[in-house]
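Message: I would value a second opinion on how I read folds in token form. Give me a protein, with the fold worked out from its sequence. Write it directly below this note and I will take it from there.
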Amino acid sequence: MKLFNACFRTFTIIIGFAFAITPALAQKGKTILAVFAHPDDESTVSPVLAKYVAEGASVYLVVATDGRYGFTPHFGMKNPDSLALVRAGELNCLATTLGINKPLIVGLHDQMQMKTGMDSLNSQLNKLRTRLADLFVEIKPDIVITWGSSGLTGHPDHRAVSDVVTEVFAMKRWQKPMNLFYTEVPTGSVPSNTFYVATVDSSYLNVRVPVSQAHLQKARTAW
């Protein structure tokens, strides 16, 4: 699906294929900005980020929240502040392994303080808007990557990040032209026994990014 005179595009990841399904998007010398909600959300596109780094792109990862409420039983931590610090450290390790720039953590509260009311939520969203607008000027990305409108799993933080990235991208003609890509999962590609994953009909996915086993392995190592 193309919107705003083809400025918006969607893409899906073809994992494990070394050949191009569509013409390869060589990214040497380009700047790529990936924006997601929580630490580890980037895993959905890590193979693609590894591919772009190998092609000579400068890749930046923006993470909106501190992830303080994620996987607490797994980490064995009851203190959200401690968990947020651990997850920030994991992001730095991931960046080193993938070869991307140091992660940019906006530092919003996980779940964006939704429980405390609209004023708190809007304050969090405004911080994200401001930070992204600043980064568009500072980094001058050629490509911006984020969730599609569903946020993949329907998580409110995922949806909010997708909305804000799209809003900031479209709010004016930036000095440097950019392309916005949404990461999506094709309908019919998800096993029925897994947790909920929103899918998109393949006819709407007009850009596919093939990755090799080497890119996939790099992403696994980073994870």
User: Anything to note?
Assistant: The helical segments are 46-54, 72-75, 80-98, 118-139, 156-170, 213-222. The longest helix spans residues 118-139. The chain has one domain: 8-195. Strands lie at 8-14, 31-36, 58-65, 104-108, 143-147, 179-184, 207-210.
